[in-house]
Amino acid sequence: MTTKVKIGIIGSGGIAAAHARAYLSFPDVEIIGVADIIPGKAQSFIDDLGIEGATACNSVAELVKLDIEAVSVCTPNVAHHSASVEALHAGKHVLVEKPLAVTLEQGVDMVKAAKANDRLLSVGFQPRYDPNMKAIKELIHSGTLGDVYYMQAGGGRRRGMPGGTFINKELAGAGAMADIGCYSLDLVLNALDYPKPLTVSAYTSNHFGTNSKYHPEADKFEVEDFGVAMVRLEGGKVLNFKISWAMHMDTLGPTLFLGTDAGLKLTPAGQGPWSGVWDGGIGSISLFHDVNDHHVETSIPVQEHNVDIFAEKVRDFVTAVKEGKPAPIPAEEILINQAIIDGILRSSELGKEVEIHIPEI
Ligand SMILES: NC(=O)c1ccc[n+]([C@@H]2O[C@H](COP(=O)([O-])OP(=O)(O)OC[C@H]3O[C@@H](n4cnc5c(N)ncnc54)[C@H](O)[C@@H]3O)[C@@H](O)[C@H]2O)c1
Fold it and tell me: What is the pLDDT of residue 274?
């Protein structure tokens, strides 16, 4: 009989169901318990999804006492830190949903807890499993673009405003910049092996979220629904990053990589107002060569989405736990992503450029 990887799920809302469905589809995984702070919610989740033999818990403390090896943290952003740290200190490996945390300090603390307990802490960026994202990274690594000096992270939603915990500053940390911006940042920075950020100058606004014409919870809207930032990176590189949950425009433009030998343009897949490269939904990839000859543009075929990228991310985590491999998307690397978002919030509040410092861990 094969040994099954024993899993716990923390938070039993929308995205937890996607984690549970993925785990349930793997023959070598068993969901042992589910925790939610709302009484009765974990049990309903277990019943609705038909998770046989799973125990419903009212707290992380209760869940980590069960015989489990790893957990998925699927709480609102605010609890990513407390739930992950508690699970890591209890000796469990952690797959935490995006964004890593609400603040940079929390992210640092989470990475420290993972190191101190020699456990995996992986971040749930499923677009990493989009074959197009892999192709882009390979292309950049092959040297075809030469030295990449400018990146533009584009995308954004025209009408894609969330509500509830996503618009509360204390619970979410930030708005569009963290919620979908973290994907955009990962798309470009992962392709370049996460260069170190040095400074950021940012502007954010919330003209739509705070207007009852556009948002039913306008009186509770505390985060940004639009932002733009210029981020200086080590190695003489610069990133122009912009994102929106709502705007009077279809797109904020393509994702671009400008290199000394060639340029790469990614245009969004998808249709209508939700379209955007931010989530890895890539529609076309074009490579531009010699500036003196405008005819040498090459289109690279976009891979069909015949993989379930969400299931792939959960599978990769399970495999790492099972085989003692490193975290597939290490939180230590994603600290850079968190540090940029932290810098954006500081810069936009101060109205000037700020430095970015990531503590040594
Ligand atoms: N990867 C993706 O595609 C994706 C998509 C949507 C959301 N997310 C992320 O997933 C997270 C959850 O989002 P959601 O839409 O599922 O939220 P949700 O509100 O539907 O569910 C969150 C659940 O966590 C519970 N909870 C809160 N604090 C808790 C705690 N300390 N311990 C245990 N349970 C707790 C809540 O009661 C709720 O049931 C967010 O961080 C979000 O950014 C990821």
Answer: 64
What tokens were used for 60? Answer: 């992380």
CATH class, range 128-305+340-355 = alpha beta
Dihedral over Cα of 157, 160, 166, 167: its sign: positive
Q: Which of 10, 60, 71, 75 to mutate to test the pocket of ligand 1 (most atoms within 8 A of CB)?
A: 75
How many angstroms separate the CA atoms of 305 and 99, rounded? 24
Closest of 310, 316, 330, 309 to residue 5, by C-alpha: 316
- Atom 4 of ligand 1, nearest CA residue: 15
pTM, entire model: 0.95
Q: What's the confidence (pLDDT) of residue 294?
A: 65
Distance 355 CA to ligand 1 centre (A): 31
CATH superfamily of this structure's domain 5-126+309-329: NAD(P)-binding Rossmann-like Domain (3.40.50.720)
